[in-house]
Structures are given as C-alpha cells and as structure tokens.
Write a structure and sequence with these properties.
3 strands, 8 helices, mainly alpha, 203 residues
Amino acid sequence: MPTLPDLQRDFVAAVFDEGNTRVTGEIRDGRFDGARLLQIYRNNVFLSLTGALAAVYPVVQRLVGEGFFNYLADGFIRAHRPGSGNLHDFGGALAEFLAGFPACADHPYLADVARLEWAYHVVFHATAPPFDLSALSAVPAEDYGALRFSLSPAARLIASDYPLLAIWRANQPGADDTTVDLGAGGERLLVFRRALEVEFKHL
C-alpha cells in the first residue's frame, strides 16, 4: 500500500509525463476509467498553466501566434514544472527556454522580449516599501563612504542587442501597425514602478 506522499509524488509525475502510469491503478473509476480521468486532469493543468504564461507574455504570444505559443508552452511546462502554489511565480525561466528552443533560433530577440515581459510582471507584483529618507538623513557624514544602495524589488535592469521597448510598444493593444527595425541597435532599460504604474527608462 503506497503512502500518501508516494501517491502525491506519483500523481504529479503522471500529470507531467503521460508515460508514467504508476498512479493510474490507484484512481477510482467513475464515469471514465482512471487513465481517462487522469488525462482530463492533465489537460486542465496544461490549459491553466498555458493561460498563466499567456497572461505574463502577451507580446511573445502575439509575435509567434497563439498556435505556436501553445506549442512552446507545452514544451516549457514539461521542462519547468511549477515550484510554487502561486501562479505569479510561474514562468520566470521562459526567456532561457526560448533562447535554447530550436524552433525559435531564427528569432533571437524573442528571449529578450520575454525577459522584458517577466521584468514587467515581477515589478508590477513586487512588494516594495518606500525609501526611508529619514533613516538616510540620520547617517553621520563620516559614514557616507560606507553607504551601499540596492535596487528596489520593484525595479529591474534589462540589457539587449535589440530595440526591446519599440518591439514591446508596437505589440500593445491599440498600437499602430508599425514595423520595428531590429537592426536599430540595442538598449539598456530600467523597468520600475511608480505608484501602481510600471514605467521604462532608457539608460
């Protein structure tokens, strides 16, 4: 008799790998048999995770098309199972996945677009306390040389060989149908949040 932790591990493994059938016999038949019920559950998981990726990466989805996005999402989900119960944490490795995805080899800018979209997502949801100016003003002048500042959780730095911001803006809802010159040069961006708005600044 398998233990509950064993059943849970086998179930998760079977959700992400159709070839894993260890848990099938432990599923009570209902309207369908255990294998069919597991497939239904698997489909729902993949649909939910694909939807979560599309919500974070709408520009990537628009650039490659919905059908191809669903295809690459399937491969990504199998390679990068969620490690958190919070869907906001899922999808951070998509840029690296795209950089090594053979079908995207002719579009190397896609990985950087994904990095920008993930930075936007993280910055928007980050918990960032306001800068404590009173604490800074209390530092004695003789200790100024020891001060060290760190980037706010609601800020990210992005560097790319491509005009990322132009690509991002050209693929927003309601944007003009403009063509972006991928040879226009790279850029460095600060992605940060002011109040509840995510903003970009060229560096």
